[in-house]
Specification:
Elements lengths: L2 H25 L9 E12 L2 E14 L6 E3 L6 E4 L3 E6 L2 E5 L5 E2 L5 E2 L23 E3 L4 E4 L2 E5 L2 E4 L5 E4 L3 E4 L3 E3 L4 E4 L1 E3 L5 H39 L1
Antiparallel strand pairs: 1-2, 3-17, 4-16, 5-6, 5-12, 6-14, 7-8, 9-10, 10-11, 12-15, 13-14
């Protein structure tokens, strides 16, 4: 295959990756705390001896949008949303993880857990405990938990030291490669959850654009294949 074919194939490969990302965004448009992703295309340029330089496109980098999602009121005692920058701190089998999905509930032992049963942590990394016999639970904007008027703990709200180094795990969970610190200017809202920040209309539009671009690339490859076949046939007939 000549350089033209390789260049076209790298473009097609990148478009396929972007289509997968867009499809995943659309599938999670109703997932609480989900962050929309995008694909970053980059250009690889290489010099070729005795010929013009060769340029190929790549789409190996994913970019996550951390724009605020819509805050939806549920009235649930342990449904929490963060207004501003910040993440809830969750304990998993793989270590501490960050998330914006705040649909929590107390387990049988009184520990606050997420939908997967992973414990919610305070800023110091200790599990958040809620007395099972408490008649009323209130959570203030700074995450402080009061049971029947007595302070019993505080929800940990943190932010990554380097936001660009966050690694997505499991849809709504992130790993902070370079660590995290207490979040500033973040408010915890009790009785709310944060919806996905996916814009379904723009994602559907982008899906159509990708599909059309892919079809154009495939048409080019088919035409290029036919051109090479005709050239080879002509060479064989003339020999």
């Amino acid at each position: 295959m000549d350089s033209t074919g390789y260049i076209a194939l790298t473009r097609q490969s990148g478009l396929m990756r972007e289509m997968q990302v867009v499809a995943n965004n659309i599938a999670n448009a109703a997932t609480t705390g989900f962050r929309q992703e995008g694909v970053v295309f980059s250009e690889f340029v290489s010099s070729v001896e005795g010929a013009p330089s060769l340029s190929m496109g790549q789409a190996n980098v994913r970019r996550t949008s951390f724009e605020q999602g819509t805050l939806e009121q549920t009235g649930g005692t342990f449904d929490l949303a963060i207004e501003g920058n910040g993440f809830f701190l969750i304990e998993t089998a793989q270590g501490e993880r960050l998330t914006r999905a705040g649909g929590f509930s107390p387990d049988a032992a009184g520990d606050l857990v997420n939908f997967d049963g992973n414990r919610v942590l305070d800023a110091g990394g200790a599990p958040v405990f809620v007395p099972p016999d408490a008649r009323s639970i209130t959570i203030s904007p700074d995450g402080t938990i009061s049971a029947d008027g007595a302070l019993v703990g505080q929800i940990g709200v943190v932010q990554p030291t380097e936001p660009a180094d966050l690694v997505r795990e499991g849809g709504v969970m992130f790993r902070a490669e370079t660590g995290f610190e207490p979040a500033e200017n973040a408010r915890v809202l009790q009785g709310f959850v944060e919806a996905s920040n996916v814009d379904p209309i723009s994602q559907l539009t982008r899906m159509i654009e990708i599909q059309r671009a892919y079809e154009m690339g495939q048409s080019f490859l088919d035409s290029e294949d036919e051109r090479v076949r005709r050239a080879m046939d002509a060479m064989m007939k003339s020999s």
